[in-house]
Write a structure and sequence with these properties.
about 130 residues; mainly beta; Nucleoside Triphosphate Pyrophosphohydrolase; 6-stranded mixed β-sheet; 1 helix; 8 strands; globular
């Protein structure tokens, strides 16, 4: 999978969102083949149960950037450490809506980041 053009892409940003979040679209190589890793959220979770997703979540105050958010969340959710990822680039922001606020439905934006894992661990990512 050729990701070389990703670095030249100028993403469209959503700058007026109440909340910011980021996801990582991990591209993993196994036996010479590239795979995009999705996760499936557990059915018992309160938010988005059973949905297919990329690892990611809300930006925390200590995150220096949305890229840092995506990498932190990937580490927390699937154990993919930032040191194992080469970030290929950023895709366009996506405006989302969350209905879980007592103040109504605040807008949020998600920044998708694409990265290639430099190392594949069969024990952490079984087929």
């Amino acid at each position: 999978m050729d990701l070389s053009r990703m670095s030249a892409h100028t993403p469209t940003a959503v700058d007026d969102a109440d909340k910011r979040a980021a996801v990582l679209a991990p591209v993993l190589t196994r036996e010479g083949e590239a795979y995009i890793l999705f996760t499936k959220r557990a059915e018992h979770l309160g938010e988005h149960p059973g949905q297919m997703s990329f690892p990611g979540g809300s930006r925390e105050p200590e995150d220096g950037s949305l890229e840092a958010t995506a990498l932190r969340e990937a580490d927390e959710e699937i154990g993919l450490r930032a040191a194992e990822v080469t970030v290929a680039g950023r895709l366009d922001d996506i405006r989302t809506r969350s209905g879980r606020s007592s103040a109504g439905s605040p807008t949020a934006s998600t920044t998708p980041t694409t990265g290639r894992s430099r190392r594949w661990s069969h024990s952490r990512f079984p087929s």
